[in-house]
Design a protein that fits this description.
single chain, 26% helix, alpha+beta, 7 helices, 5-stranded mixed sheet, Fumarylacetoacetate hydrolase, domain 2
């Protein structure tokens, strides 16, 4: 049994207000234990409608739980996804305010720029055929739940912790890259904090993109030309603090950076 529209609307307002004001809330499943993953995605979409009503535009999607080990740990068989809006865009090298977040963390990513509409159950090759280019990216994620306590269902309802992202200036065709094995090094204040490979992103970033398109098709949706897709983190997330200067260097794709004040 799915949740009523009234309850969906109430919970969508709760997560939207928490994200808008950076005020934490108790995890939704504490008071709604019957909530399903499908309910959570419906709440996520309802919260996006609230953002659109304020003038934000959905400009892409992000993938989460793209590590096979992490999926096994969480007891799920598919990654999760969230929506990206134009209000989440952070310019390369820009500084964000620490106090604007609840529990900010940063992840090293790759981003796909979509050149044509695509939908349906697709494989990695078909997914890549719709890609204009690939660039390095940083994602700032932020759970809005009190004491950092939540279930997977809560995370999905909270738009998969989507908060902000930075795209690198170098964009290359996927065919020009060893996309399945790009080295990635993330540094904070000049010290290396995480190293990884694009192979950690669902074993190949194109598989992550295909999984997203396929999951969206289950709701009659797809990706549109011009949208951005964050393929998923290549390493664990790192907590941010005021004064941090973050830089990610990706093989063949250069660097992307952000600061924290």
């Amino acid at each position: 049994m799915t949740m009523s529209e009234e309850v969906i609307g109430k919970l969508a307002k709760a997560v939207d207000e928490a994200a808008r004001t950076s005020e934490s809330l108790v995890m939704l499943t504490a008071e709604n234990p019957e909530m399903t993953l499908d309910d959570a995605y419906t709440i996520q979409r309802a919260s996006m409608e609230r953002r659109k009503a304020r003038g934000e535009e959905v400009i892409g999607m992000k993938m989460g739980l793209t590590s096979t080990a992490k999926m096994e740990q969480m007891g799920v068989h598919n990654p999760i996804y969230g929506h990206l809006t134009d209000a989440m865009v952070i310019g390369d090298g820009e500084t964000i305010e620490f106090d604007a977040y609840c529990h900010p963390r940063v992840e090293p990513e790759l981003a796909f720029i979509i050149k044509e509409d695509i939908s349906g159950a697709v494989d990695a090759r078909q997914a890549l055929s719709a890609v204009e280019g690939v660039c390095a990216a940083l994602e700032v994620i932020d759970s809005r739940y009190q004491d950092f306590k939540f279930t997977l269902i809560d995370v999905v309802a909270d738009n998969a912790s989507s908060t902000g992202f930075v795209l690198g200036p170098v964009v290359k065709p996927a065919a020009d890259l060893d996309l399945g094995n790009l080295g990635m090094v993330m540094s904070i204040n000049g010290e290396v904090v995480e190293t990884g490979s694009s192979a950690a992103i669902l074993e190949h970033p194109a598989r992550s993109l295909a999984a997203l398109i396929t999951m969206l098709s289950e709701r009659g949706e797809g990706l549109k030309a011009g949208q951005v897709v964050l393929a998923g983190a290549a390493t664990k997330a790192v907590h941010l603090k005021p004064g941090d200067q973050v830089q990610l260097e990706v093989d063949s794709l250069g660097t992307v950076a952000l600061g924290v004040s």
